[in-house]
């Protein structure tokens, strides 16, 4: 297979958990990528490049792999838990998928094509201030200028944005783990696995990968599960239904499931676990939908993720439902909770 043909298959090939022969020509690029990534991180660590600390603690929720791994549900969980503990959280994000090059405050009616789908979804679901910007230091400063009451910032992604100093780093992996374990472009990793040694904790959105569990050593690890059993109408109407009601209302109509997230199979498996049968329609993460993309559902019923709904709702002409999900975080094997670990750091104590 030629390199150009392989480029179309790279994400799938990366997660075959082995270095297939066709990837070997890319190895020199991975070595170069690793060298440059290491030099960049060292430049910030030793003061060659300047980093900046905001006047409030920063919690970074990120990943070592490219693409989505479940960070957004974890950000929502964090914001909800911190708020319940008396903190006043806010969110900053790169705004990937949006066209804005400026720091921008996200409103509930913002255009997803401008601010990005995940920031808009986070703003609507969390109810806390959200600011997007390529420069997260500038985004954080703008957020605090507009909302001085905020006393902790959660950064959606940004693990490699070393210009922004942080108090807590949470690294999320989904069931695909680290794939073949190689750096871009030979594999899915943005940084080597040894980078995990500097994190606060690892969160598993799926079954932990034994190789990674070993690589993380004594680093606290937590299992995350996404739960959701009731659908809400994509039209925004105050309507909801459960899987049984949905199945009985279909008649001779076909059920379609759409997902444009990092790993669409996660959403499809969730639907199957609810006892539903459907036709799968996976799209790339942050896909910019057009009406033609949804034409397959004109004579059926469409199911989608919340993130896709913020972009697709205005294009839907037929019946469509959205599945809201919530993150549940288990305690570590030692009985310590993730929230307790974070609060100890925010309060200035060494985690137990």
TrEMBL record:
Keywords: ATP-binding, Kinase, Lipid A biosynthesis, Lipid biosynthesis, Lipid metabolism, Membrane, Nucleotide-binding, Transferase, Transmembrane, Transmembrane helix. The keyword Lipid metabolism applies. Its EC number is 2.7.1.130. Pfam families: LpxK. ATP binds at residues 65-72. It is an enzyme of class 2 (transferase). GO terms for biological process: lipid A biosynthetic process; lipopolysaccharide core region biosynthetic process. InterPro entries: LpxK, P-loop_NTPase. It comes from the Bacteria. GO terms for molecular function: ATP binding; lipid-A 4'-kinase activity. GO terms for cellular component: plasma membrane. It catalyses: a lipid A disaccharide + ATP = a lipid IVA + ADP + H(+). Pathway: Glycolipid biosynthesis; lipid IV(A) biosynthesis; lipid IV(A) from (3R)-3-hydroxytetradecanoyl-[acyl-carrier-protein] and UDP-N-acetyl-alpha-D-glucosamine: step 6/6. The chain crosses the membrane at residues 20-39. Belongs to the LpxK family. Transfers the gamma-phosphate of ATP to the 4'-position of a tetraacyldisaccharide 1-phosphate intermediate (termed DS-1-P) to form tetraacyldisaccharide 1,4'-bis-phosphate (lipid IVA). This is Tetraacyldisaccharide 4'-kinase. The lineage of its organism: Bacteria, Pseudomonadati, Pseudomonadota, Betaproteobacteria, Candidatus Accumulibacter.
């Amino acid at each position: 297979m030629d390199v150009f043909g392989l480029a179309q298959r790279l994400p799938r090939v990366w997660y075959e958990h082995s270095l297939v022969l066709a990837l070997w020509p890319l190895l020199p690029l991975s070595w170069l990528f690793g060298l440059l990534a290491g030099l960049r991180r060292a430049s910030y660590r030793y003061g060659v490049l300047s980093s900046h600390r905001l006047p409030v603690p920063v919690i970074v929720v990120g990943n070592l792999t490219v693409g989505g791994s479940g960070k957004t549900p974890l950000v929502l969980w964090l914001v909800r838990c911190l708020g319940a503990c008396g903190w006043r959280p806010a969110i900053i994000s790169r705004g990937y998928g949006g066209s804005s090059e400026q720091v921008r405050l996200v409103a509930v009616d913002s255009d997803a094509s401008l601010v990005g789908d995940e920031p808009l979804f986070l703003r609507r679901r969390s109810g806390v201030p959200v600011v997007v910007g390529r420069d997260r230091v500038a985004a954080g400063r703008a957020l605090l200028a507009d909302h001085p009451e905020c006393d902790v910032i959660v950064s959606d992604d940004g693990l490699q944005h070393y210009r922004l100093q942080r108090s807590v780093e949470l690294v999320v992996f989904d069931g695909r783990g680290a794939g073949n374990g190689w750096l871009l472009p030979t594999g899915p990793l943005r940084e080597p696995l040894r980078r995990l040694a500097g994190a606060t904790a690892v969160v598993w959105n799926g079954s932990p990968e034994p190789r990674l569990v070993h690589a993380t050593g004594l680093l606290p690890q937590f299992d995350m599960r996404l739960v959701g059993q009731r659908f809400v109408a994509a039209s925004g109407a105050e309507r909801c239904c459960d899987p049984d009601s949905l199945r009985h209302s279909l008649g001779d109509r076909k059920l379609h499931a759409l997902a444009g997230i990092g790993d669409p199979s996660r959403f499809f498996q969730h639907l199957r676990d609810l006892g539903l049968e459907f036709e799968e329609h996976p799209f790339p993460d942050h896909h910019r939908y057009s009406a033609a993309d949804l034409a397959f559902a004109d004579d059926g019923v469409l199911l989608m993720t919340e993130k896709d709904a913020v972009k697709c709702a205005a294009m839907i002409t037929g019946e469509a439902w959205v599945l809201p999900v919530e993150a549940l975080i288990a305690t570590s094997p030692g009985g310590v909770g993730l929230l307790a670990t974070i609060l100890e750091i925010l309060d200035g104590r060494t985690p137990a």
